[in-house]
């Protein structure tokens, strides 16, 4: 399992008479590498903290801002939002939030890729990044139900809160 690029390996030309690396050079080199890694880690942390993303819907009705971790920080509605139905507004908000989350994820990837690209750590990080759905890839809005929408639970046959309704059918239908 690799967590850093090959360039982070210690390469010191200070070899003693025995053909082995002199301990004081090894320690000095290790300390320098550790200090450089600490500096880069602090730099990445600062960059990640500022990797917010903002997205606006195609029609301009919704603008959102998300934190680097994808959490919604702000949402604004233009006058255009008042002409949308509740379902249209919901879909527009969700699509715009996903768009901003993908942008934040892209920024994070750009920040950490130089240090961790091609490693198991990078695979781990990108494994949690949001992926575009079919609608975002094609640019077309779907007219049917959302494929990731939660499914309605099936009624349980042993449901017995009210004997009058225990015929296996939900009273909510």
Automatic annotation (TrEMBL):
Entry coiled-coil feature ranges: 27-54
Keyword DNA-binding: yes
GO MF terms, alphabetically ordered: DNA binding
Record's keyword annotation contains Phosphoprotein: no
Alphabetized Pfam families for the sequence: YbaB_DNA_bd (PF02575)
InterPro entries: YbaB-like_sf, YbaB/EbfC
Region (Disordered) location: 120-173
Gene3D superfamilies named in the record: Nucleoid-associated protein YbaB-like domain (3.30.1310.10)
Keywords on record: Coiled coil, DNA-binding
Protein name, UniProt field: YbaB/EbfC family DNA-binding protein
Organism phylogeny: Bacteria, Bacillati, Actinomycetota, Actinomycetes, Pseudonocardiales
